[in-house]
Design brief:
The protein is mainly α. It has 3 helices and no strands. It has a domain of 47 residues. Helix content is 72%, strand content 0%. The two termini are 56 Å apart. Keywords: Coiled coil.
């Protein structure tokens, strides 16, 4: 059983590694293709007059900025959509908390906190203790000090 689990983990890691390698190879191919295109346009631009070189450079910069602007708009749309989704979830959770608070026993007015900090009232169950005390080891010095005083 342990050997099979380790084999499965190894195969999963190998698969992820191969997927990452494929993605990197694809990215490398795209970068090489882009580099070749840039080299060709650079060689071509060297053969042009200075005025045409400036105009071509401006056109390339405008194209780059336009693409970057479109990417940023797309990212903004995704973030706005995510924000709306999260706000809806927050409203749902706030309603659940309010419903939960309403279902709990009502705390007397003088004990209620003055602010609404979305605090949840927790109802304690009464237990019948029979001389035994359960505590965490790190709380032992505090418990001893309290017992003495």
């Amino acid at each position: 059983p342990v050997l099979r689990l380790l084999e499965a983990q190894l195969q999963d890691q190998r698969r992820k590694h191969e997927e990452e390698m494929d993605a990197m190879r694809n990215q490398l191919d795209l970068m090489q293709e882009e580099l070749e295109n840039q080299q060709q346009s650079f060689l071509h631009s060297l053969q042009l007059s200075p005025e045409v070189q400036v105009e071509l450079g401006l056109q390339q910069e405008i194209t780059r900025l336009t693409n970057e602007n479109l990417d940023l708009k797309e990212m903004l749309e995704k973030l706005e959509k995510n924000e709306k989704k999260l706000k809806k979830q927050l409203k749902i959770y706030m309603k659940k908390v309010q419903d939960f608070e309403a279902s709990q026993t009502v705390v007397p007015v003088e004990r209620r906190p003055r602010e609404r900090n979305m605090q949840v009232a927790v109802q304690r169950k009464e237990k019948d203790f029979q001389g035994m005390l359960e505590y965490y080891k790190e709380d032992e010095p505090l418990l001893i000090r309290n017992l003495i005083t």
